[in-house]
Amino acid sequence: MALAANEPYRGRLVRVLKAYVNPENGDLIGDPKVQFIGRVRSMPIAENNNECTVSLRAEHYEAELQRPAPLRLNNADQERLYPGDKGAEYADLLEDKVVVWPAREALMK
After folding, report:
1. Phi/psi at 90 (nearest 5 deg)?
2. DSSP H or E segment with residue 52
3. DSSP string for residues in the chain
4. Which of 17, 104, 16, 23 is nearest to 56 (CA)?
């Protein structure tokens, strides 16, 4: 319980493997197979007078793909990350711009 309460566990990698064990000698039968890969989200602790239960809640790694990216290609994000950088100074002007490529004149040559 002390380990669950004091360790910084959020965001750590979780891999759940499935393996078959020989009951007679405890040896593995074959290779373990990956069943789940994700990251730890929470570790709730429930205790009463006689026992303590520590649970682990994890989120599958594909759930991160469903979240929007926290950064955008705009001048504000660029300045926040790299103060003084003018690389995205005009990126906001391109938002509503219609770009036709290649130009019609280039195709007529």
Report:
1. -105, 10
2. strand 52-54
3. -HHHHHS--TT-EEEEEEEEE-TTT--EEEEEEEEEEEEEEE--EEE-SS-EEE--EEEETTHHHHSPPS--SSHHHHHHHSTT--TTTTGGGGTT----SS-HHHHT-
4. 16
Residue type, 98: V
In this prediction, what percent of the chain has a pLDDT beyond 70?
96
SS3 state of residue 56: coil
42 forms beta bridges with: 57
Whole-prediction pTM value? Answer: 0.51
List, for residues 52-94, the tens digit of each pLDDT value.
Answer: 898 989 999 888 888 887 777 888 888 988 999 988 888 888 8
Q: Which residues contact 77 (CB under 8 A, 6 or more apart)?
A: 71, 88
**Cα-to-chain-centroid distance, residue 95:** 28
The confidence score (pLDDT) of residue 83 equals 93
